[in-house]
């Protein structure tokens, strides 16, 4: 497919009710859009490109019970001790084994928390709109699951600060800059700080991106990475139950 006709989309559902955060990159990783969208605006964004490869920062499938299978557990590195982690997806266990927090997706929709139900409904809506699970060679709409913290840590090759802190947000934004996304230099934040602003609690706004925006951007970058360099990305989990994709850095 002609990459110039392809958009790489990141989706984070942690926004306000009825909206979600979306980021769109072109084939050169330029940020074409970043912000909250309504369902109507989302449909308009999809129609702007003939090929849409999307990453979403929430589960797209239920737990199929694979972690209860002794043979599956024995193949994991490291294998979980005893009966621990028997009721989560394999991709979620692999994240936990790497030191990351993860959702623990139940086996039935009714057992899911409201936020997880929303995510699964949204994934079903995407499937109805023609999105197929990556990799689906030749499909013009594809979807993959991304864990933002582990994706950023993969690019960093080291320890991440929490995204709830300004240090963690700056760290993530710098990583996006290194991967040639045209985001604002977050170091300007420090140039804007004055003693008066610190004393009055008026820290600079609009320079360092919000967590949901950073999540959507790394999801979009992961979609770009997986589509343009499929052998370079890391796949966690089982193809049938659901995989989490970690991007490949262009700097190493």
Q: How would you explain this protein's 3D organization?
A:
The chain is α/β, with parallel strands linked by helices. It folds into two domains: 3-61 and 114-246, Nucleotidyltransferase, domain 5 (2-Layer Sandwich); 66-109, no CATH class. The chain is built from nine helices and eight strands. Strand 1 (6-12) and strand 2 (20-25) form a beta hairpin. Helix 5 crosses helix 9. The longest helix has 18 residues, at 211-228. It is globular.
Q: Note the main sheet.
A: 6 strands, mixed
Shape: globular
Class of the largest domain in CATH?
Alpha Beta
Order of helices and strands: EEEHEHHHEEHHHHHEE
Strands side by side in the biggest sheet:
3-2-1-4-6-5
CATH topology of the largest domain: Nucleotidyltransferase, domain 5
Could you list the spans in which at least 5 consecutive residues all have pLDDT below 50? none
The name of the CATH architecture of the largest domain is 2-Layer Sandwich
Number of domains in the coordinates? 2
Computed over alpha carbons, the radius of gyration is: 19 Å
Q: Number of helical segments?
A: 9
Average pLDDT score: 92
Percentage beta strand: 15-25%
The total beta strand count reads 8
Fold blueprint:
Blueprint: E1 6-12, E2 20-25, E3 31-37, H1 39-46, E4 51-56, H2 70-74, H3 90-97, H4 114-128, E5 132-133, E6 141-145, H5 148-156, H6 166-178, H7 188-191, H8 195-200, H9 211-228, E7 234-238, E8 242-246
Parallel strand pairs: 1-4, 4-6, 5-6
Antiparallel strand pairs: 1-2, 2-3, 7-8
